[in-house]
Amino acid sequence: MPSLAAEPITGRASVIDGDTIDIRGERIRLHGVDAPESWQTCGDGAGGTYRCGRQAALELDKFLAESRPTRCDFVERDRYGRVVSVCFRADGRDVNRWLVESGNAVDWERYSRGAYADARELAKSRGAGIWRGRFQMPCQARAERARREPSC
């Protein structure tokens, strides 16, 4: 049963990937951010690579565990039927902003309209997360893997 559009969804979040969580059986895509895919690798800044998508999911899980429950405010439903939301920890921290600020996701301006541009610049300047080395934008990596044009 789909949740009501105007109702926040609150509960213990399970991490699906770096920009998707589940609360009480509802898949929630974090609005305006794009995290590397679980299979995606990024440069580590020292000549090696690491599974940045997997790392983003692990970091998100740790961040959410520090202050439960998570509350997600409805923005829309996406074409896959997922709820798209801006989410907050119990202590009020904006989860979407933290993902970008920590370098575990990028500001997806197409959807955020630049809401996290300042967080992206902070992460870049600190060399945080994916910004410590070379990486492919997640939307480009997905498109390349699917052999289609990127939507970003």
Describe the structure.
By secondary structure, the chain is of the alpha+beta class. Helix content is 29%, strand content 26%. The chain has helices spanning 52-65, 95-101, 109-112, 117-126, 138-146; strands spanning 9-11, 13-17, 20-23, 26-30, 33-34, 42-43, 49-50, 70-77, 83-88, 106-107. A six-stranded mixed β-sheet has the order 1-8-9-4-3-2. A two-stranded antiparallel ribbon has the order 5-10. A two-stranded antiparallel sheet has the order 6-7. α2 runs parallel beside α4 (117-126).
Query: How do the SSEs run, as a string of H and E?
Result: EEEEEEEHEEHEHHH
Uncertain stretches: none
Shape: globular
Distance between the ends: 31 Å
- Helical proportion, percent range: 25-40%
Largest sheet: 6 strands, mixed
| β-strand amount | 25-35%
**Average pLDDT number:** 95
How many DSSP H or I helices?
Answer: 5
User: What is the number of strand segments?
Assistant: 10
Strand order of the largest sheet: 1-8-9-4-3-2
Q: What Rg, in angstroms, do the CA atoms define?
A: 15 Å
* SS class: alpha+beta
Provide a short characterization of the protein structure:
The protein has 152 residues and is α+β, with helices and mostly antiparallel strands.
Which structural traits does this protein have?
152 residues, alpha+beta, two-stranded antiparallel sheet, 5 helices, 10 strands
